[in-house]
Amino acid sequence: MLPNTGKLAGCTLFITGASRGIGKAIALKAAKDGANIVIAAKTAEPHPTLPGTIYTAAAEIEAAGGKALPCVVNVREEQQIIHAVEKAVKTFGGIDILVNNASAISLTGTLETETKKVNLMMDVNVRGTYLTSKTCLPHLRKSRNPHILNLSPPMNLNPMWFKNHCAYTISKYGMSMCVLGMAEEFKGEVAVNALWPKTAIHTAAMDMLGGSGIEKQCRKTDILADAAYCILTKPKSFTGNFIIDEDLLREEGVKDFDVYAIAPGHPLMPDFFLDVETDTTSMGQGKHEEKKLSGSQPKGPDAAKVNRESAAAKPLSPVAETFRVIQGAMSEEYVRTTQGVFQFELSGDEGGTWYIDLKTKGGSAGFGKPPVTADVVMSMSSADFVKMFTGKLKPTLAFMSGKLRIKGNMALAIKLEKMLTQLSPKL
C-alpha cells in the first residue's frame, strides 16, 4: 500500500460517483490527509441493490479525517453540476482537484443496445465528463496545483475492443479524448490525466457483470485509490498521461501487489482495452488437453445421449466429447436453478450450431438448434469453446477480450459460468 504524505491536506476534491466503489475509495484516501471532499453522486436514498448513499459516504470520509460535502448530482443534468460546484466553492473556498469517475456501462452489440442505453452512456461518460470539467475549470485555474483525473482507458484502436460493445467503447474513449484535448489546451495551468486499472476491480458493477465468484479474479478499489493519490500529488506539469495503476505503482516502488488482491494468488482478470494474452495456459498444454479429450470414447449405447447426427459425424472431436460430458452431468437441480437455453455458434474445426437446454424437463445437450428458442446465443471458435469448458479460459475474460460474443439474456450467461465452475473437474 502507498503511504499517505499529507500533501492533499486542505485541498478540495470534487469527485463524481463518489458514493461507492472507486470514487469513494479515492475520496477516503484523500480524506486521510485531511482533504475536503465534494461527493457529487446520484444516490441520496438507499438503493435496493447497490450499497451506500452520498450521506453514508460523507460519514466515512469524516471518520477518515476529511471534510465532506454531499451533493445530489446526476452528471446528465448541467444545472445540478453547476449548483454543486457553486456550493463547493462557497463551502470550501475553491476546487483544487476534479475526479471524473461517474460512468455507465452496457456490454451489448450495436443491434442489441437500446437507444436509451446509448444516450445514457454518451450522456454520463462523455458529456458528463466534459461538462463537469468545463464547470470546474475556472475554479481549478485559481488553484496552486490543480488536477483533472478521468477514470478512462488508453485509446487502443484494436477493433476487438469495439466489435462487442461499440457504444460503450466510444463513450469511454470520449472521456479519454477529453484528456487529450484538455491537457493540451490547459498545459501549464491544469494537469489533466487518465487512470485505468490493469486488472478488473471488485465493485458493485463488476458483481452485476460477472456474477458470484467474480471477485476472486479482481483487485480491491484500494489500488486505484493509491494510484490516483500518487497522480494528484504530482506537480501540474505532469499532464496528458494515460496511466495504468500497477505500472505507476511499480515505478513508485510498490512491490507487494497481493495486498490489493481479493484472493491473493488467484489468477486476475485483465481489464478492458488492454491487449494481453487471454488464454490461461500455454499453447502446448492446450494441445495436450485437446488430444486427451479426443481420445475419450463414450461407454455403453446410451452414454452419449448427444444428438445422433453429431455423434455419428464427429464421434471423437473435442467439442462432441465436451457435449457428451455435459449431457452426462445434466441434473434436475441444474435445470431447476438455471432455467435457460443456450445456443453455441462455433467456428473452425467441429464448428456449427450446438446447444445446452437447461429449461426443458431433465435437460439436454447436443448438435443442432435447441428444441426451443434459445435465451442466449454465444458465438466463438470451437477451440476457445473447449478451453472455456475445461476451465482454461474464463467466460468473462473470453467475453471481455472479444473471443466470445453474447446475444440475449446476460444474467443467464452468468448462470452458465457458475455451472462451468462445477462441471470443469469432470471435463
TrEMBL record:
Ranges where the SCP2 domain occurs = 331-420
This entry carries the following GO cellular component terms, namely: mitochondrion; peroxisome
Keywords, ordered alphabetically:
Mitochondrion, NADP, Oxidoreductase, Peroxisome
Gene name linked to the record: Hsdl2_0
**Gene3D superfamilies referenced in this protein's UniProt entry, alphabetically:** NAD(P)-binding Rossmann-like Domain, SCP2 sterol-binding domain
- This one is known as Hydroxysteroid dehydrogenase-like protein 2
GO-annotated molecular function: oxidoreductase activity
Q: Which CDD domains match?
A: HSDL2_SDR_c
Q: Where is the signal peptide?
A: none
Q: Which family does it belong to?
A: Belongs to the short-chain dehydrogenases/reductases (SDR) family.
- Which Pfam families has this protein been placed in? adh_short (PF00106), SCP2 (PF02036)
**UniProt region (Disordered), positions on chain:** 280-312
Which compartments is it annotated to reside in? Mitochondrion; Peroxisome
